Amino acid sequence: xxxxACVVLAATAVLLLTVLLVRALARQEAPPGRxxxxxxxxxxxxxxxxxxxPLPAPAPPxxxxxxxxxxxxxxxxxxFEGTPRPLDEPNVEEPLGTLRPPFLAPEGTVxxxxxxPVSSSDPWPVIGELExxxxxxxxxxPGSFVELGxxxxxxxxxxxxxxxxxxxxxxxxxxxxxxxxxVVVQVAEDPDFTLGVTTVFNNDHxxxxxLGVGLDKGYVETFEGKLIxxxxxxxxxxxxxxxxxxxxxxxxxxxxxxxxxxxx
Length: 264
Ligand SMILES: [Ca+2]
Ligand SMILES: [Ca+2]
Fold this sequence. Notes:
By secondary structure, the protein is mainly β. It has one helix at residues 3-28; strands at 68-70, 104-106, 110-111, 118-120, 146-148, 153-171, 184-188, 198-202, 226-242, 251-253, 255-262.
């Protein structure tokens, strides 16, 4: 082999080596424009089992509607039209302007006061008889109400049994839009109101009747009467106080109903 041939061979070898080297280097970089092979993604770890949301707390019995039904209050004839004006009297609520919504109580709740005996701080009423308070007649007509004397007076109903009481409805007098003052309603275990006395309503905001300051509002009398939510208080005797009204100093009652159930 001639010297020239040797030089050519050497040059070719160097060229080949150079090409191989360049290719080897090029392999280490991603070819431009070529999307790298996607790395086989590892399977994601299995999702943890869906966490169960806690179920809503069961509704309390009084809200579950199970065994609740509206109490059936029979209403007398309305004696005046429209929404009564709030009278110029402190601490009196705005009239609702509509009939009150139904009042729910456990099934079997009835008026335990019907024809039950009535006593009073004024045993000789000015007008009428105490029996009118529980005789079922709720009309605002002559002969349908009893009028007690002036000052703080009360009537009291003996239910004849200790009862769970859900509501008391009282009609003082609904011929006109009166507001009766210092209305206080209590439930007790004994007729002298010394045992288990619970005040379920008190709008005597200045305690002028001496039974404590009441936070309830006064209200305008209508044919619907006043429904007092008693929240299941227990007792046998119901006493209702008042101290005159916005028209005169008389204390009137047309009817008192006590919705409850005897304690077994
Ligand atoms: Ca009556
Ligand atoms: Ca008062």
